[in-house]
Write a structure and sequence with these properties.
alpha+beta; 7 strands; 21% strand; elongated; Peptidyl-prolyl cis-trans isomerase; PPIase_FKBP_dom; isomerase
Amino acid sequence: MSKTYNTSELQASYGIGLQMGEQLASNPFEGLDIDAVQDGLATAFHQLPSAVSNDDLRTAFNAIHEKMQAAKAEQSKAVIAEGENFLADNAKRDGVTVTDSGLQYEVLNEGNGDKPVASSTVRTHYHGTLIDGTVFDSSYERGQPAEFPVGGVIKGWTEALQLMQVGAKWRLYVPYQLAYGEQGAGAAIKPFSTLIFDVELLDIL
């Protein structure tokens, strides 16, 4: 029979465990053993002798760290290769222009207004996806245009906006070097991700 948490003390204690479990689940390593975690927690809380020496703990932590770094590097290589292959194929399509920086764009609507400069502030609508089509941000879906300085966004946007006229709508294919680089952005945009944006330049403010 499962334990009943029917007092504030028990509920708060259970909540602490939940929070710790969520933290572990958000960044686990292969082979993580929750029973061992619970044993270690109880040992420390009750100030009992550790079942594992400090030297062994240090060695184990270093070994797991190296494994996680290696796995992360392999994942990054795969993401980079996927993006590079996508861009190489995309560059061959009719209507796609590739700039010296590696930015690719496709003109959906020409526009006929002024062009912003790096110091301009603009109003835009945009729709951002990963190359697999996953949407990570969209002012269209929010129903609210976004305003920002041309020089205060990712490099791919800064470059493209200065080529666009007010009223234009372009589709941008942004290599990771011109997007969020090796850091990524939030949970949705992994490090080294190539991104796709539909960008509509509404106005220069």
